[in-house]
Write a structure and sequence with these properties.
Elements lengths: L2 H35 L2 H8 L3 H14 L7 H22 L3 H9 L1 H32 L4 H18 L2 H13 L3 H8 L4 H9 L7 H14 L2 H13 L7 H31 L9 H12 L1 H34 L13 H18 L6 H27 L2 H4 L6 H28 L7
Length: 440
C-alpha cells in the first residue's frame, strides 16, 4: 500500500476543507455586515410604491395596458444611481442632504428646498391617507374610522419606537408587497406580450401619455427619498468601511421596488385595460374592479397591498419632511431622539399627519387629483434636488476618493434633463394644445 500517496491525498482534502471553511466564514461575515447595514436602501426604494404611486401604476396599466412597461428598465437604473449617490454622501460625510445643502450653498437655496419639499410631501401624505381610506372601503370600513386609527398608529409607532424597532417593522412591511405578485399571477396576463413591451419601447406623443410617464418617474424616483435615505445611513452611523454593504442595500431595494411596479402594471393591464375598465379614479376602485375580473383573492390581495403601502408611506413621508426642515435649519432630528430632545422634529411630524389625515376626511375633497398631481409634483421637483446632489457628490474636498464616476454623472444628468424636458412638454401641451390629462 502506497502510504505516501494516501497521506498526500488526505493532506490535500484537509487543505481544501480548510479553504472551504475560510470561504464559508468570509461569506458569513459579509452577510452579517450586510444585515447590519441593510434597511435604508430597501425601505426607501419600496416605500416609493406608496398609495399615490400605486394609483399611478394602476392608471398606467388600466389606460395604456403594457405600453409603459419599457420605462421601468431606465427607471431602475436611474433609481439606483440617484439613491446610491445619496447613500455614498451619507456614509462618507456623516451628514444629511439638507445639512450639506445648507453648509455648502447657504440658507436661501436650503429654504427653497424646504418650502418645495414641505408642500409636495404634504400632498403625498394626503395621498397615503387617501390610500388607507380607499383600501379599507373594500373591507367595508368607513374612512371616518379607518383614517383616524391609521393616523394614531403611525404617530405612536414613530413617537414611541427606537430607530431599530421602527426599521424592523418597515422591513416587514416590504415583504408584504408580495401580495401584488400573487395578484398579477391570478390575473392570468399575456406574459409574452408583457415581455415584448418591456423590451421594445412604445412612445406616444400626447399630453395624457406624457403626464402618466412623468407621474411614473415622479413616484418611482421621488425627491423626498434622497433626504430620508441619506438620513437613514447617518442615523445608523454607517461609515466608509460599510460602503459596499450600503451600496448592495440600495441595489437590492431598487430592483425589488421596480419588480413590484412591474407586477402592479401587469395585473391592471391584464384585467382592467383588457376588459375596457379604463376610467379608474383610484387604486381602491381598481381593487374592487379586479374581483369580478380576476377573482375575489386577486382583488383582496390588491387592496391589502394598497393598505400596507399606505400605512408604510404615511409613516415615512412625514419623517422625511421633518428631516429636510430640521437639518436645513440646524435643529435636532431623528427617531432615536426623545421628544424633549428634538421637539421641532416631532411637532413637524405630528402636524403633517394631522393635516394629511384631516384633508382626507373633508367631504368632496378632490383626492384623485391630489393622488396624481402629488406624483407629478415629485417629477417637477426631482431635477432641482438631483442637481444639488450632483454638485455635492462631485466635490472632491467633500467626498475625497468617493466622488462620482463618469457613468454615474451621465445617468444622473440624463435623469434631471429628461424630467426638465418632460415638464416643459407638459406645460406646452396644456397651454397650447389643450390636451386632456389623466387627472381630469
Amino acid at each position: 500500500m502506497n502510504w505516501n500517496a494516501i497521506t498526500a491525498r488526505a493532506e490535500g482534502l484537509r487543505t481544501r476543507g480548510g479553504d472551504l471553511q475560510k470561504r464559508i466564514r468570509g461569506l458569513r461575515r459579509r452577510l452579517v455586515l450586510l444585515m447590519a447595514v441593510v434597511g435604508p436602501g430597501l425601505i426607501t426604494s419600496n416605500v416609493d410604491n406608496d398609495a399615490g404611486g400605486i394609483s399611478v401604476y394602476t392608471q398606467a396599466g388600466a389606460q395604456y395596458g403594457y405600453a409603459l412597461l419599457w420605462s421601468l428598465i431606465p427607471m431602475t437604473i436611474a433609481l439606483y444611481v440617484t439613491e446610491e449617490m445619496c447613500a455614498r454622501m451619507g456614509v462618507v460625510t456623516g451628514k444629511g442632504l439638507s445639512d450639506l445643502i445648507r453648509e455648502e450653498f447657504g440658507f436661501r437655496p436650503t429654504f427653497f428646498v424646504m418650502i418645495c419639499g414641505f408642500f409636495v410631501d404634504l400632498s403625498n401624505v394626503v395621498a397615503e391617507f387617501a390610500g388607507v381610506a380607499a383600501s379599507m372601503q373594500i373591507f367595508h370600513v368607513s374612512r371616518y374610522i379607518a383614517v383616524p386609527i391609521a393616523a394614531i398608529l403611525v404617530w405612536v409607532l414613530v413617537l414611541r419606537g427606537t430607530y431599530r424597532q421602527v426599521e424592523v417593522i418597515f422591513l416587514a412591511a416590504c415583504v408584504l408587497y408580495l401580495s401584488y405578485v400573487f395578484s398579477a399571477f391570478l390575473a392570468k396576463p399575456d406574459w409574452l406580450l408583457a415581455a415584448k413591451h418591456t423590451i421594445i419601447p412604445e412612445i406616444q406623443f400626447n399630453s395624457g401619455y406624457l403626464v402618466m410617464l412623468t407621474g411614473l418617474i415622479g413616484t418611482t424616483i421621488a425627491p423626498w427619498q434622497f433626504f430620508y435615505l441619506q438620513a437613514g445611513y447617518v442615523e445608523k452611523k454607517v461609515g466608509p468601511r460599510q460602503y459596499p454593504q450600503a451600496r448592495a442595500d440600495v441595489l437590492i431595494g431598487s430592483i425589488s421596488c421596480m419588480a413590484i411596479v412591474f407586477f402592479i402594471i401587469i395585473c391592471t393591464a391584464a384585467t382592467l385595460c383588457a376588459s375596457g375598465h379604463r376610467d379608474i379614479t383610484d387604486a381602491g376602485q381598481a381593487a374592487q374592479a379586479l374581483i369580478p375580473l380576476a377573482g375575489k383573492w386577486a382583488g383582496m390581495l390588491f387592496a391589502f397591498g394598497l393598505l400596507n403601502a399606505s400605512l408604510f408611506a404615511a409613516s415615512i413621508l412625514p419623517l422625511s419632511t421633518a428631516h429636510v426642515i430640521c437639518e436645513g435649519l440646524g435643529f435636532e432630528a431623528g427617531i432615536d431622539h426623545k421628544f424633549r430632545e428634538a421637539p421641532i422634529f416631532y411637532w413637524l411630524y405630528s402636524i403633517l399627519i394631522v393635516v394629511g389625515a384631516g384633508i382626507v376626511l373633508l367631504p368632496n375633497a378632490p383626492l384623485w387629483k391630489i393622488l396624481i398631481f402629488s406624483q407629478v409634483g415629485n417629477g417637477i421637483w426631482l431635477p432641482v434636488v438631483v442637481i444639488f446632489i450632483l454638485l455635492l457628490v462631485n466635490r472632491r474636498d467633500l467626498m475625497g476618493e468617493y466622488v462620482n464616476t463618469t457613468t454615474f454623472n451621465v445617468v444622473a444628468w440624463v435623469t434631471a434633463i429628461a424630467m426638465i424636458v418632460l415638464t416643459l412638454v407638459l406645460t406646452y401641451s396644456a397651454i397650447f394644445q389643450g390636451g386632456s390629462s389623466v387627472a381630469q
